Structures are given as structure tokens and as C-alpha cells.
Amino acid sequence: MVDVAPPHVIDVFLGPGDFYFGDEQTRIRTLLGSCVAACIRDRGAGVGGMNHFMLPDEGKLVGSHGNISPGGRYGVHAMELLINQILKLGGRRDRLEAKVFGGGNVLPGMTHSTVGQRNAEF
Fold first, then answer.
1. Contact assessment for residue 46 and residue 21, using Cβ atoms and an 8 Å cutoff
2. DSSP, residue by residue, 33-69
């Protein structure tokens, strides 16, 4: 069975560091492991979005991470970007609902703080 969006629905797939926002005609999907996706919406305004961040913040990382947006790859920035865009579309902060997914431990045998755990704590 192939999952195909109806013709009037915008179907978006997020990779690490991406975020997307839209109205009720938008379907956003992603695939997670240790990364986290926050889904935020204002049901009253019919707008919302999702981000897919890799780490809570920059921490001690140095260097480039390819085509990943610097703002979108870190939770501290990705959350602000997403919420601000929803507010620009007419959402109200006091009506925002959120669901958060991911933060898995994808490297078995690691007993110290993992990326997934740090993301989940954020």
C-alpha cells in the first residue's frame, strides 16, 4: 500500500535541521531516531508546523554540517523559528498545542548521556 496525500494536500517530508509550517491542508512527516520533532499548532487559527532538530544547542560542536540549516539543527533555535512562523500565520501563543516525538537511544550499549536523552530532556 502506498501512502499518497489527496491532491489538495501539501505533503512535506522533513530531514534533520528542517522545519515547515502551514495550514490545515498541509501534511508533514519525518523519520526520527535520536533527533526530536516538535509538532506545534493553533487549532483555532488552523495553522501549525513541525521541526526536526538534531541537538538541544550548539554545545561544543565546531565545523560545518553540510546543507543543514544552522538554525534548524539545534532545538534552542528550531523552536523559536517554528513558533514565530506560526504566530506570523495568525496563531496565538496562548492557544498553542504541542506534541514532541523522538529522542531515542539508537546506539545500544551507551550508558552515559546520549544524544537522544539530551534531546528529550531539552
1. no
2. SSSEEEEEEETTTTEEEEEEESBSS-TT--S--TTS-
Catalytic residue among 14, 28, 35, 55: 35
6-34 pLDDT per residue, tens: 668 889 999 999 999 988 898 999 999 88
Angstrom CA distances, 49 to 2, 34, 102, 111, stand at 24, 20, 16, 33
Query: Which triple of cell numbers denotes residue 56?
Result: 538541544
Task: Specify whether 39 is catalytic.
Answer: no
Residue among 113, 10, 14 at smallest CA distance from 72: 14
